[in-house]
Amino acid sequence: MSKTVRTTCPYCAVQCNFDLHLENGLAVKITPTKACPVAGGTVCKKGLASLSDLRHADRLTSPLLRVNGVLTPVSWEVAFTAFADRVRPVLERDPSRLGVFGSGALTNEKTYLLGKLARVAFGTPNIDYNGRFCMSSAATAMNRTFGLDRGLGFPLADIASSDLIVLFGANIAETLPPIMQFLKAARDRGAKIVNIDPRATPGLAQTQLAPFPGTDHLIAGLTLNLLNGWGRIRPAAPADGADEVLASVAHLTLEGVSKACGVPEAELLKLARLYAQAHRPLILSGRGPEQQVNGTDTVSTLINLAFLAGHFGKPGGGYGTLTGQGNGQGGREHGQKSDQLPGYRSVKDPADRAFMADFWGVREASLPGAGKSAQELFLACGTEIEALIVIGSNPAVSAPGSGVVRERLAALDFLVVIDFLPSETALMADLVLPGSMWAEEEGTTTNLEGRVQRRRKAMTAPGGAREDWRILCDLARAVGRGEKFAYPDFAALQTEFFASTQGGKADYSGLNAERLDGQTFQWPVLHAAHAGTPHPYFAPYATPDGRARLVAAPMTVPARAPLTLTTGRVASQYQSGTQSRRNPGLKGAPEVQLHPDTAREYGLSPGQPVHLQGPHGETVLPASVTPKIRPGVAFVAFHWPGSANELTSADLLDPHSRMPAFKSEGVTARPVPVQAATDVHVRPSPPAPQSVYSKEPA
Ligand SMILES: Nc1nc2c(c(=O)[nH]1)N[C@H]1C(S)=C(S)[C@@H](COP(=O)(O)OP(=O)(O)OC[C@H]3O[C@@H](n4cnc5c(=O)[nH]c(N)nc54)[C@H](O)[C@@H]3O)O[C@H]1N2
Ligand SMILES: Nc1nc2c(c(=O)[nH]1)N[C@H]1C(S)=C(S)[C@@H](COP(=O)(O)OP(=O)(O)OC[C@H]3O[C@@H](n4cnc5c(=O)[nH]c(N)nc54)[C@H](O)[C@@H]3O)O[C@H]1N2
Ligand code: SF4
Ligand SMILES: [Mo]
């Protein structure tokens, strides 16, 4: 029996559609389709390789309970009894001592359900998710100026009509490859492309600026000041704060910024001239400027530039941030964030609270307030947080200062992980619940343009693995709070989810599975005949008085360490690597990229093991010596245990967004004699999967 199911990719926020071909219930092939409304049939190698995870030999097929220190297969009944025995006493003592950690990899429906589970079934305020490590700075900046956070306020195709594209720390060719076609279309029409990145990443850029990490705000601030001097300020709409913003950059000079950023004056001037001359310049940011201790303020500066030059909100012009995870956009809208309720409502707003309490049929006073942000939640494990449930994230590898985070996770009384593969975090858990993969469930995701699309169930989860949404409902039942989680089927959950967003900023209430069957819609979608909103940013904005509220950011010059580590991604791996490291179609190994001058300075030759020391941890990685990175900067990708996050700081957070400073860390480096470096991971990594549990059911 063969069948073909049109669905969306499990990985990044582009959310390409493709056809999954099945023979006798097994996935055999993926073929791209020109009908894909996002990328028109372009997919990347990760998407094409994604089917090999589905029946990977390491798939978790039975709940695992830690018995005498060993993860041991048990029945679901035993698993839920263990959950109840350990979690009920915590809830009786103080529900806030239970933490919940979610993910931008989860569908909208699971995001919604996880937030409802935390707040309605458990009564804990302490729910947050991995998007805090991803989108939070850009989201905070967009919200504070426009009252709305949709990463791209335009369809991707608009990019083709830009005449200048300025990339701030976005490695599109490697991280969001299908978007290259829109940049190429723009370039073919004569657009200029400027890449601002301490590394020369692959792509189409005609101009490269390679600043020291953490100095993007100075580049944008200087550009704004030069524009002001040239009489080129013409705000896109009525706004507050314009004078303060212009005053805050008035002291920036070519000479001063050149020194602070390490970029020649001529290049800074060229950028400003290009920007001043362009009719539809588009600034796109990735994680480079955002994952900084001043990430929110830096994004505000990018917004201020686009807005005060009159481009924000224009098709093909303005500013946008490139969301990362498959449902990174929807994942930040529907209530798994510590301060948020479904439909992008606020947990602090009395009217929003009243709406959701009424919708859920609970007392408003019973809804908890705002809880701890992601890293604060991890750092409180073992003290204020006794038990933690993690779904869709692998913080043992991906959280900043991961060695410290692993220590905190180990200090918990009870760690529950819902995953479909034995991630490093799952291997630390007391209870592992085997969940479902993308092709094994129904749902919707919202891509980086705010486009809501259907994910379709093509096969059933293997062995004893269960659909995530059923597991979450079972957890509510296990603690005796199942009555509001008794969905007869997935459709009932989905209908409730869409209805919950009605009247919120991210309003999906005009959607249903039938409407989404052959079409996609950019939110808000206000009623069943509404076609959606390709361009949501227009005045009056979603602020209390409709005016944009521009925020003047401190133009602080960051202290420069002798060697600054920045971190990020490579094309062939995905995130913490649970999936991609197991995929034979996706290769790669950790290394530290250094400029030849830096290598010489530290006495390092290509391939030589380098000992790197960060504020709380250390590791040893082979040197990759390349002129494509600026001197004084080291780059390490975070996809492996023992890589970037052994070196990042566990407690340096942006005060506004609580985003960790993943992309600027002072480190020291020294060569390690090759014989002494047989074990490249100095800090002990969690044990390999096979050694801790047997896959045979008990
Ligand atoms: N192959 C692959 N693709 C992915 C992912 C993946 O893991 N692998 N993950 C997805 C997710 S969740 C996300 S969030 C996106 C992220 O996508 P990107 O934002 O493109 O990815 P990063 O590699 O984190 O960072 C981008 C660039 O920022 C540069 N950079 C570092 N510090 C600075 C700085 O201070 N200023 C500037 N201007 N640049 C700097 C880095 O050198 C890097 O090239 O990718 C998505 N797509
Ligand atoms: N140094 C450094 N660290 C970083 C970053 C950086 O640039 N530099 N980037 C940060 C960013 S932007 C992000 S988004 C995070 C990502 O890092 P993580 O939050 O760790 O995300 P993933 O690696 O995608 O982890 C997903 C885990 O959940 C499982 N999973 C995936 N989908 C599902 C699902 O639908 N259901 C269930 N039950 N399980 C699922 C996978 O098997 C995997 O184990 O890393 C952050 N960490
Ligand atoms: S670009 Fe992103 S969504 Fe598209 S195939 Fe690649 S990983 Fe999947
Ligand atoms: Mo991300």
Task: Give an overview of the whole structure.
- The protein has 698 residues and is α/β, with parallel strands linked by helices.
- It folds into four domains: 2-55, N-terminal domain of TfIIb, CATH 2.20.25; 64-132 and 327-486, Rossmann fold, CATH 3.40.50; 136-321, Dimethylsulfoxide Reductase, domain 2 (3-Layer(aba) Sandwich); 564-679, Barwin-like endoglucanases (Beta Barrel).
- The chain has a seven-stranded mixed sheet, covered by helices on one side. A five-stranded parallel sheet has the order 10-9-8-12-13, sandwiched between helices. A four-stranded mixed sheet has the order 24-26-25-29.
- The protein is globular and about 70 Å long.
- It starts with a strand and ends in a 6-residue tail after the last helix.
- The structure holds ligand MGD (2 copies), iron/sulfur cluster (SF4) and molybdenum atom.
- Iron/sulfur cluster binds next to α1.
Quick recap of the structure?
This protein has 698 residues and is an alpha/beta fold. The chain is 27% helix and 18% strand. It is built from 21 helices and 29 strands.
Strand content: 15-25%
Which hetero compounds are present in the coordinates? ligand MGD, iron/sulfur cluster, molybdenum atom
- Largest sheet data: 7 strands, mixed
User: How does CATH name the architecture of the largest domain?
Assistant: 3-Layer(aba) Sandwich
Radius of gyration, in Å, reads: 24 Å
**Strand order of the biggest β-sheet:** 5-4-18-17-16-6-7
Contiguous runs where pLDDT drops below 50 for at least 5 residues? 679-698
How many domains would you count in the coordinates?
A: 4
| Amino- and carboxy-terminal Cα gap | 33 Å
Count the DSSP helices: 21
Overall CATH class of the largest domain: Alpha Beta
The overall strand count is: 29
